[in-house]
Design goal:
Among the domains are: 175 residues, no CATH class; 226 residues, no CATH class. It is mainly alpha-helical. Helix 15 crosses helix 17 and helix 29 runs antiparallel to helix 33. Strands 1-2 form a two-stranded antiparallel ribbon. It binds a DNA duplex (12 and 13 nucleotides) through loops.
Amino acid sequence: MDTPQKSITQIETPVSKSRFEDSPVFNYINSLSPIRPVKSIPNPHQFSTLNFTSPPSVFTSPHLTSSHKESRFFKTHHPSPDPTILVQESPDDSKSNEEAAAEADATTEFNIDASTEMEQPQIVKYDVKETNLDETTDLSLVPYASPPRKENGSASEDAPGMEMYDNVQGKNETPDWDRLIADSSEFLIFSSPNDSEAFRCLMMQRASPSQAPSVMMPTMQPGSINEPESSNASPYGAVSVLHRGIRRRCLDFEMPGNKQTSSENNTASRCVVPSIGLHLNALLMSTKDCTTNNTTHDYSCSEKYQVGLQGSSSTLQETLDQTETETREDVPVEPTLEELHLSSPKKKRQLEAGEGESCKRCNCKKSKCLKLYCECFAAGVYCIEPCSCIDCFNKPIHEDTVLATRKQIESRNPLAFAPKVIKSSDLVLETGDDASKTPASARHKRGCNCKKSNCLKKYCECFQGGVGCSINCRCEGCKNAFGRKDGSAIVDMEAEQEEENETSVKNRRAKTQENSEVYLMRKEESSALPATPMSVYRQQLVQLKNMMPPPQSVLGVGSSSSGMFNSQYTRKPEMKSLETVAEDGAEEMPEILSHSSIDNINAVSPNGKRVSPPHLDSSSSGRRSGGRKLILQSIPTFPSLTPQH
DNA sequence: GAGTTTGAAACT
DNA sequence: CAGTTTCAAACTC
């Protein structure tokens, strides 16, 4: 906020200086002048920021991968842009107004100094950084802490934002940052499922304001030093790191008065939406309406959640568990999806088991939850109480083991923890698979190998993922309701069923149709719901991006499944970037983008159905056309976004 | 709830 | 890379 103004003022000043340089008095005045303008100009400044942020958001969002966004987000904290961030955040944050104001003033002064040093360069630098960083994934690899300092140099240090940030954080240094970034990055992850995560994160915090921050912070920062201060002493501090990430994501949401909400949250319902911003609430409402949507994001949510937790200690898990349980209770959605999907009471059973929902609950007995057999592990989530696993090592306590195992698995198969289902566009890129050939908009990465299930049961990962089988599949007798391997779409299901002359065929057909419908519902909902929250986040993120420097930390892989671990593990930039882009970005991004505008979201979510759900429809109805995929993903998204915003 | 089926993951 | 074993989810009863 302040920075831009300052910069502007500064920029302007030079001209004035040229005029008045002659007289030292003027110079003196000039030196003083910047200060006032900065403070006094808040309005213009805001506008400027808005303008500044918004345009890039539109442009950037599409271009940027989720990971970038995430990374950026984190970066922002550190780098120069701080002032803006600070300004925004400080108010948002629970900092006492007085303190915040005082700090702001102080910061402004510092900013001026810093800005004077940096001045225009800063701003310019800003943009440049973004572009550069975005473009170069390498930067992402760079240790989070180091870059900002280096880049900004003294300026960054001096930068009020930095100070603020440091103060808030208690000045834990790099190591914390890395972690923090990694953890936060996960939260930031944009994969559609993630949206829910973000929600949850918010939920978490809101739900247990005291706990959430503290817990979160611990996760973020191993050193407990900051925690007490942040959480207790200064609400702001507590919120600080975590919140920032969250805030940024939820900025809009929280705007209304997060502090209060957070404070309220303590007493108030944890899982409840109320804590979340209006948008989120609306979304949730919509989601509830949609009901089915949750399934997707459930999964993701829980995952991310836990992912975020990963770093965290058991306490986090506890909170998560609580939140999960609460959320589950609150949100009937997930079960509906699977229930619908299978349309059988059993599904409810599953739901009861907790499986249906976002949270994965395993039942491992021999794998110790350290193999991909374990759904929790595979999803990048720690096992939680509801899990009935035996000798489980997939717990924060055994973080090292988990990580090591994970690395091993990844070393074997870099994509082991990547989302299994990828959208068609991605597939096209990766496999070169013709969209036209592939019935479904999304495909299973590796493809299934079903022999007896005819890809009509959840044994089939394709079917389970709600996607049609593709060329990659080696299944036999594929009758995948979402799209056959041969390319026949769901629409063809009828034909398939016709083919099946068996009496059961009718039943199956009904089921399959249900499934397909459910699937559509689910997808629409899921897309709508996740998308909406995502879109919001993205918007915010975009804004943040604009404000913030490029991402240094991990490439936030959007993949829902891999989320946690990915963040923690240094990813192969290539792989991840591709996947991320393809999956999160390509798949969801477009949708989100198309819906990205809040307006769109509202419009869509409330009804629970999107106006034009691309891939969903195709998959469900089997009416997918490869062409459609491409169109939907790539083309529409950008235009739609820009105009709206 | 127990048992069976299934196919992915892991192993050889 | 192919075949086999292991494993846990999905499913059935």
